[in-house]
Design brief:
single chain; globular; alpha/beta; nine-stranded mixed β-sheet; 447 residues
Length: 447
């Protein structure tokens, strides 16, 4: 790589630029809009010779370019990407770049739900060991920028998305997990088959000496096992596994090379629920495979309180509990949110429609919701699906304030009101974080 075009001037693109400039590359960053908030960072890159091109993107950007680095938001259909591929110019993601420049082993996490919790917990575990490490990837932190700084004796905890895996070439983690696969991002990948294929690329280059961890209960696991050319281990909260991690009663276990290693009981963990126990098992297994001691693993898990916007308790008012699950941006995650309490809830859902099937979601809502409150661009399609499923108590609202107020009005002593949208937030907010913060603000203003 000598002359590199970076598409996208976000965290990923700017991080990649710093790395490439350190490697004496000529770098051009192209974006439709100049939304760079850190002007000092922009000035620093410019002083190092980076060129910025803002505005419409044309194939003329490819002149003299030998490599294109795409940010996660850039699809294969982008005309510059399409033309680069037609010309045989390599197109890679920042994840691929990170692998090429780092000396440290990569512990990689992907899946539809639970990636951030698992990766963040994994980072917390590694930090206990005092080994050099980086926690980055699909977390709002540039993986390549961080990974290059980690020495050979360190470890990298990397969250990787299907968008990033779509454009890898040689990327090879030493340990990887696919937490689960459920319908998501169909608007980007177009088909479920393409989405699954993108996720499967995480183990495409893994081989002898590497370890792949898969969900024993996931419907795609058997196909992944057939395609993998590396050791496959399993994790499960339902049953024992031959190699991997599992729950035995209320005890979390790691099983490696016929040796059972008790971790801790669920009562010793601050995270609760099946999804969280799966995430803990995955993080513990990856850390153990990375050489982290069981004592460090136990201590970090015990202290870990979880992340905001994931079935996060907000407050209790007049006997009604309010929970923020804004991170539930797809139907599977929202189903976990509405079923987490073992009784029917008042559910606030809707937002930017991902176009996935709502059949299972509405059957679940029929059983686990007392009232369904819908908002955002998806509310009409959701309402139609609810009616088809026979859900009678459905309310359409205009904004989050009206949604929360409706929930309060409908709630009785002992009820739970939860925001678990089953949609992304981009019709009304900049991201799930802003949506969750708005929900919490409105809830905390109730009286």
């Amino acid at each position: 790589m000598k002359n590199v075009l970076i598409l996208g001037a976000g965290i990923s693109g700017l991080g990649a630029a710093h790395v490439l400039l350190r490697h004496k590359c000529h770098v051009v960053i192209s974006d439709l809009h100049d939304k760079i908030k850190d002007l000092k960072d922009k000035e620093s890159l410019s002083s190092l010779g980076c060129k910025f091109c803002f505005g419409s993107q044309d194939i003329s950007l490819l002149e003299d370019i030998d490599t294109v680095v795409v940010s996660p938001s850039i699809p294969r259909e982008n005309k510059v990407v399409s033309e680069a591929l037609r010309r045989g110019i390599p197109v890679i993601s920042e994840v691929e770049l990170a692998y090429r420049v780092t000396k440290a082993p990569i512990l990689a996490v992907t899946g539809t739900n639970g990636k951030t919790t698992t990766t963040t917990l994994l980072g917390s575990i590694i930090s206990r060991s005092k080994r050099p490490f980086a926690l980055a990837g699909n977390l709002g932190i540039s993986l390549s920028k961080e990974a290059e700084l980690v020495p050979e004796n360190g470890l990298i905890a990397a969250e990787v998305s299907s968008f990033q895996l779509e454009f890898i070439d040689t990327f090879r983690p030493c340990v990887a997990v696919i937490l689960n696969i459920t319908p998501d991002h169909i608007e980007r990948h177009h088909t479920m088959e393409a989405y699954v294929a993108a996720k499967a690329r995480i183990f495409e280059n893994m081989g002898t000496g590497d370890s792949l961890l898969l969900n024993a209960e996931d419907s795609y696991t058997s196909d992944f096992i057939k395609k993998a050319h590396t050791e496959v281990c399993l994790f499960s909260v339902e049953r024992e596994v031959r190699e991997g991690a599992f729950m035995q009663g209320d005890m979390l276990m790691i099983r490696r090379h016929r040796q059972d290693i008790p971790l801790m009981r669920t009562s010793e963990i601050q995270l609760k629920g099946k999804q969280n126990y799966e995430d803990v098992l995955a993080a513990a297994f990856l850390a153990y495979e990375g050489g982290i001691s069981i004592d460090c693993i136990r201590a970090a898990i015990s202290d870990f309180k979880g992340l905001p916007h994931r079935i996060e308790f907000v407050r209790k008012l007049k006997g009604v509990s309010y929970y923020n699950d804004s991170k539930a941006t797809n139907v599977d995650s929202a189903m976990k949110g509405m079923t987490a309490f073992g009784k029917p809830v008042i559910l606030i859902a809707g937002g930017h429609d991902k176009g996935t099937s709502l059949d299972d979601f509405m059957e679940c809502a029929k059983k686990y919701t007392k009232h369904l409150i819908l908002l955002g661009a998806a509310k009409k399609r959701f309402a139609e699906a609810a009616q088809k499923a026979g859900i009678s108590s459905v309310y359409l609202v205009n904004d989050m304030k009206e949604a929360v107020q409706t929930g309060k009005t409908l709630a009785e002593d002992g009820d739970i009101v939860i925001l678990s949208p089953a949609c992304s937030s981009f019709d009304m907010y900049s991201g799930f974080e802003e949506r969750g913060m708005d929900f919490k603000k409105i809830v905390n203003q109730l009286n």
